């Protein structure tokens, strides 16, 4: 078996930090190279190699891949839904060109695997609201969703045409205590914990009964690694797999938090992110991922709430 050398692009972001640390545990610290445009996240300092890298600079990226002997790339650099709406052209350019750069290099250097995340943002107002299936109507309304859906087809294209083993998950909203949210519409579900502990109150930018698919970060990291370690013949979806864990509303999560912090209060002041949330499904059917490579979430709402508060209190 050849020794894998993994490059994580966007390692200082919300998913990148925890994924890098998890991969280093499995493959060894020196075999997982973290990279980002930003400063290295403090949680990564001293845990393994770090390079400053711009995914938009294809030549620089290519040089690093050859120099470091990279065999796998995890591409996490992206502009998310809420941030993307403020600068659609930039979001499209970064999200698309970054992916095409990586896919091209993967083809040329014959990398063993590429990971690239998609999102529930690919779904739109015409997609089924409940248990949204793997194959369904997809008409995204945000530039982030449009770029992710186009990206899914680029992944499929590079697999079909060039044999690049690229794998992808449509992440729901991700909740984590380790790193700050990255400008997404589901960020309220992280902010609410911080505000509950610090202020005892949260002003929510979504309506009380807005249900969205969510997932606790440990489940998301495990899903990513399980997908990437699954045998090639088990992977039937080369666009991106639906992935699901929990669905809840701001009202439900605040009720759960009150069990731990009885004096906690919340009020609602919906902003432009409400329209984005309204365009997405309330729950996702991920039975194809379960069937193909055995996906199963571990955290429900109460387990996640307790774990979030315990860790943030530390």
Structure overview:
This protein is an alpha/beta fold and 314 residues long. The protein has two domains: 6-173 and 216-242, Rossmann fold (3-Layer(aba) Sandwich), CATH 3.40.50.720; 175-214 and 245-313, UDP-galactose 4-epimerase, domain 1. 41% of the residues lie in helices and 15% in strands. The protein contains eleven helices and 14 strands. Strands 3-2-1-4-5-7 form a six-stranded parallel β-sheet, with helices on both faces. Strands 6-8-12 form a three-stranded parallel β-sheet. Strands 9-11-13 form a three-stranded mixed β-sheet. Helix 1 packs across helix 7. The termini are far apart. The mean pLDDT is 96.
Give a brief description.
The protein has helices at 14-27, 58-68, 81-84, 88-109, 143-162, 188-198, 217-229, 250-258, 273-278, 287-293, 301-313; strands spanning 6-9, 32-36, 50-52, 72-75, 113-115, 118-119, 166-167, 169-171, 173-175, 201-204, 212-216, 241-242, 246-248, 265-268. By secondary structure, the chain is an alpha/beta fold.
Low-pLDDT segments: none
Envelope shape? globular
The ordered H/E elements are EHEEHEHHEEHEEEHEEHEEHEHHH
The Rg value, from CA coordinates, equals 19 Å
- Briefly note the CATH topology name of the largest domain: Rossmann fold
Give the end-to-end Cα distance, rounded to a whole number of Å. Answer: 41 Å
User: What does the average pLDDT come to?
Assistant: 96
Q: How much strand?
A: 5-15%
Q: What number of structural domains do the residues give? A: 2
CATH class of the largest domain: Alpha Beta
């Amino acid at each position: 078996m050849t020794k894998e050398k993994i490059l994580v692009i966007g390692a200082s972001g919300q998913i990148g930090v925890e994924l890098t640390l998890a991969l280093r545990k499995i493959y060894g610290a020196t075999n997982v190279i973290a990279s980002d445009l930003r400063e290295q996240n403090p949680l990564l300092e001293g845990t393994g190699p770090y390079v400053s890298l711009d995914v938009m600079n294809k030549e620089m990226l290519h040089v690093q891949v050859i120099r470091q002997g990279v065999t796998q790339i995890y591409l996490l650099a992206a502009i998310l839904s809420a941030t993307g709406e403020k600068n659609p052209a930039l979001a499209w350019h970064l999200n698309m060109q970054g992916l095409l750069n990586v896919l091209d290099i993967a083809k040329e250097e014959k990398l063993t695997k590429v990971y690239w995340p998609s999102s529930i943002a690919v779904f739109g107002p015409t997609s089924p609201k409940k248990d949204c299936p793997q194959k369904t109507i997809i008409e995204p309304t945000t530039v982030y969703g449009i770029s992710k859906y186009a990206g899914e087809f680029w992944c499929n294209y590079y697999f079909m045409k060039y044999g690049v083993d690229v794998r992808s998950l449509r992440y729901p909203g991700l909740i984590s205590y380790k790193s700050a949210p990255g400008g997404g519409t589901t960020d309220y579900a992280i902010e609410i914990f911080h505000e509950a502990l610090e202020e005892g109150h949260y002003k929510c930018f979504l309506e009380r009964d807005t249900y969205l698919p969510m997932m606790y970060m440990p489940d998301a990291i495990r899903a990513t690694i399980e997908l990437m370690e699954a045998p090639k013949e088990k992977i039937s979806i080369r666009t991106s797999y639906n992935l699901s864990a929990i669905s809840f509303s701001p009202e439900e999560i605040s009720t759960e938090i009150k069990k731990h912090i009885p004096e906690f209060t919340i009020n609602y002041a919906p902003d432009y992110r409400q329209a984005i949330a309204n365009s997405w499904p309330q729950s996702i059917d991920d039975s194809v991922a379960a069937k193909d490579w055995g996906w199963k979430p571990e955290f429900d709402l109460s387990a996640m709430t307790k774990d979030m508060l315990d860790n943030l209190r530390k």
